[in-house]
Write a structure and sequence with these properties.
heterodimer, A: alpha+beta, 4-stranded mixed beta sheet, 12 strands, B: alpha+beta, two-stranded parallel ribbon, 48% helix
């Protein structure tokens, strides 16, 4: 996507003092997530901006609820604050492109009482080049790319979009995923095609898929020896009461651990068969919900009769709406990421130069490359 | 087209922020006390009845 609209230049702030004074000021003004930030000095922002061929004033997207214009320069400032390596900038820009896409519905994610956070799933060679963890503890701590790319997006949603807790961000309880929610698919351990290839991209193209999702809910099954046995546990976990996918369907994500994925593939189960199984079996018995809850579900999805004692509540309209990726290290654990329901949709964007050409490496984006 | 936003007071500040940022600073709001989720249907009817005249005024007054 070529970006033509230009936004205002960022203002420069003069601060007397050093790291502590800058951090005290930024915290006081509500410009941080509560953790200390890296001061976005002119030199640090200039070094960050050297890693993209976008015009610094180009507007990548308009972010609600404030309708703030996310210029490349303002994205870079927040990426410095988050602790990103300068070469991560194209990954942050692509993430904001995806989130600002109307199909993603950032309005809903930003302002809702639901605890959804912008999950960023990276695919392709640039994810490996940037060092985005796709192995052990991939949804956890310990990797700069995962920790800071997601954090940069959070700071942008706050500082440009105005998603501040209690005003523009009305999440009842929030989630630790709102600090940073960034992962790469473990493509080497994926016995099927990775997400971006499934979506029609060539393997060499790197993409980010953004999705408004809850934090991971673990799915443990150490005991099933067959793919069908693992699917029963997965469907049982995903067909839980209280998720927004029970309420309104949408596109829930299943993140298979490599060992569960290997067992499923060994038993000849395809990704589309996994999706169909979840569509058919990830269901909660209507008789275990209140009549009022069932009426609420019926308002949003048509397949539940609140007066039928045998009715079950599913989590998707159709099998293909289930997203499946493979990530993590050894162990008999998978997880699922409930989403904000059918109010939002996943959006995938290739990581590209300003003219839309997909990048083959992060250094290719450098101005002096 | 005459338009009014009906909601609960807890979300008034957010609604005002959204309206301002989308260029609708004069959008009228009629608010009831938060929360309304969990109220008995009779209480919801009473709340709605109490908002009718203000809603009509917002829809018919010129801005």
């Amino acid at each position: 996507m070529a970006v033509t609209q230009q936004g205002p230049a960022a203002k420069t702030l003069r601060v007397r003092g050093g790291f502590a004074e800058v951090n005290a000021l930024f915290l006081e003004r509500g410009w941080t997530d509560g953790l200390p930030i890296v001061p976005p000095t002119e030199a640090a922002v200039a070094e960050m901006l050297a890693w993209t061929d976008h015009d610094p004033r180009a507007v990548i997207g308009v972010l609600p609820p404030r309708q703030g214009e996310a210029t490349v320069e303002k994205i870079a400032i927040n990426a410095v604050m988050a602790g990103c390596e300068p070469r991560y900038l194209p990954l942050v820009i692509a993430s904001i492109q995806a989130i600002a896409d109307p199909r993603f519905n950032a309005d809903a994610m930003q302002a809702t009482t639901h605890p959804c956070a912008p999950l960023l799933i990276f695919n392709g060679p640039l994810a490996r080049e940037a060092g985005i963890n796709s192995g052990y503890n991939c949804y956890g701590q310990g990797f700069r790319a995962n920790a800071t790319i997601g954090r940069a997006v959070r700071l942008i949603l706050m500082n440009i979009g105005g998603g501040l807790p209690g005003s523009g961000d009305r999440s009842t309880q929030g989630s630790p995923a709102k600090y940073s929610y960034c992962v790469a698919e473990n493509e080497e351990a994926n016995p099927w095609e990775p997400l971006h290839v499934e979506l029609g991209y060539e393997p060499w193209i790197s993409t980010v898929t953004a999705l408004a999702a809850e934090g991971p809910h673990n799915i443990q099954d150490h005991y099933s020896n067959t793919g069908e046995g693992i699917l029963r546990t997965i469907a049982g976990a995903m067909g839980q009461a209280g998720s927004n996918n029970i309420l309104s369907h949408g596109t829930p994500l299943l993140t298979l651990g490599p060992e569960h994925a290997a067992t499923l593939a060994r038993d000849g189960i395809s990704k589309s068969e996994i999706k169909r199984y979840i569509y058919e079996h990830a269901r909660f018995p209507a008789r275990r919900l209140s009549h009022e809850a069932l009426l609420g579900i019926r308002e949003r999805v048509s397949d539940v009769d609140p007066d039928d004692p045998e009715a079950t509540c599913g989590i998707v309209d159709r099998p293909e709406d289930v997203l499946v990726i493979v990530a993590g290290g050894a162990g008999k654990h998978s997880s699922w990421q409930p989403t904000f329901g059918n109010f939002v949709a996943p959006v995938t964007v290739p990581i590209a130069r300003a003219d839309g050409t997909p990048l083959r490496s992060l250094t290719e984006a450098r101005r002096d490359a | 087209m005459p338009t009014v936003v009906i909601g609960t007071d807890e979300f008034l500040a957010l609604a005002q922020l959204e309206a301002r940022s989308r260029g609708l600073p004069d959008l009228p709001f009629v608010m009831t006390r938060h929360p309304i989720g969990g109220l008995h249907p009779d209480d919801v009817r009473a709340r709605a009845a109490a908002m009718v005249s203000e809603t009509l005024r917002a829809l018919t007054s010129s801005r």
